[in-house]
Amino acid sequence: MSEEGKTQQAGGATVETQDVVIVGAGLVGLSVAYHLATKGVTRVVVLDRESMWANGSSGRSAGGVRLEFSHPSSIKFSQYGLDVIRDFEGTFGMSASFNPCGYLFLTKDSNRWEKMRELASMQQSLNVPVEVLSREEIGRRFSYIDMPDLIGGTFCGEDGVADPGTVAYGFARRAQELGVEIRLGTEVTGITVEHGRIAGVLTTGGPIRSACVVNAAGPLARRIGAMAGVDIPVFPYRRSIYVTEAFDGLPAEMPMTLEFETTSYIRREGQSILMGMSDPSEPSSENIETDRESLEKLITTVLSWVPGLEKASIMRGWAGLYEVSPDDSAIIGEVETRPGFYCANGFSGHGFMHSPAAGRVIAELIAGESPFVDITPFKLERFRNQRETPESFVI
Ligand SMILES: Cc1cc2nc3c(=O)[nH]c(=O)nc-3n(C[C@H](O)[C@H](O)[C@H](O)COP(=O)(O)OP(=O)(O)OC[C@H]3O[C@@H](n4cnc5c(N)ncnc54)[C@H](O)[C@@H]3O)c2cc1C
Q1: Is the CB of 34 under 6 A from ligand 1?
Q2: What is the pTM of this model?
Q3: Which tens digit of pLDDT belongs to each residue from 98-113?
Q4: Which domains are delineated in the chain?
Q5: N or C: more exposed end of the chain, with fewer CB within 10 A?
Q6: For residue 2, is pLDDT > 50?
């Protein structure tokens, strides 16, 4: 730590000071750090209690990147994320392995089908090349699907899958090269507030004074909020992913395919299939163990619409935590009642694809600039004002 990073306190003790403290070295915290550094804000420390970065939800994602959302601001977040991920090698010198396999959403529900068609027009007006597909067209183009009660679906060929680990690594390395410190094995245990404003953090490595703290703690965001006296309604929910052994007969073209009503999804992972599903009956918890019961439910569900998977055996699986907000949209920005406290939380299962834009927006706000996307729909205060509109494109 340089001398300029220390202040002398009245009692003679030296206390570290930073312009910005970021809590959490996952995709979101690292993206904030990178985007701050590109603006010349480098007296920044990223703290994580783990001994590795991106070891929380960021290391457990399915890697999906898509443009289809029901909020225009979420679409713009995805468009920026997709640009960053597609051009990753040009900017960061390493490929994020983007595979533009597309996203196919399916529905068996006539009300949802109507809504999806309405939303497709809005998405197309924002340059999202989404196609509305009848049940017959889906049968012709995606013959692995056998769903007798299917009504229709939407397909976006610009979407795809990339490697979250490389994206996190790219953000981290470039932020470090520009002067940001990433300090692992350091847990934030408290946040100090003076005269209603953020004044610093308490950590297992000692206190740090800073007028600016970014909450990028993923599924644990609510705990960090509580330390600052702010209620952030973000709750952790377990989500499991399983991957089959390699097997013959996979279709050459297979988008990330999601079935809304069961929330089950599949995609190719090399010669294997990766699959997952939510369980709405499972309560919020920090459990990240996989279990036989959820695997059996997933297999039964997926086989009901992709019968060709009967030949496949499960090879491995893992679980992680979604960080879910009440309306399934992120909570982003400076908290009005706590100046200096910034949130980038509640991504509800789309935090990989939205991490580039979330980092850019938080960096812009800290630098006193207008965010490049209207973040009004993401403000924490929407819950107080009951102005939230649930996001439709989530599973
Ligand atoms: C199974 C699964 C599949 C997913 N699939 C997709 C997908 O296909 N596409 C997509 O876009 N998103 C997906 N997501 C969501 C995405 O992974 C997350 O939204 C994203 O990783 C959140 O990043 P984060 O940096 O906010 O959180 P995290 O990666 O969890 O990082 C938060 C960090 O904060 C640290 N921390 C917490 N408390 C403290 C403390 N007190 N002191 C210090 N450090 C602390 C933690 O150790 C952690 O490293 C998926 C998530 C899961 C679980």
Answers
A1: no
A2: 0.96
A3: 999 999 999 999 999 9
A4: 15-60+165-234+327-384 (3.50.50.60), 100-159+235-324 (3.30.9.10)
A5: N
A6: no
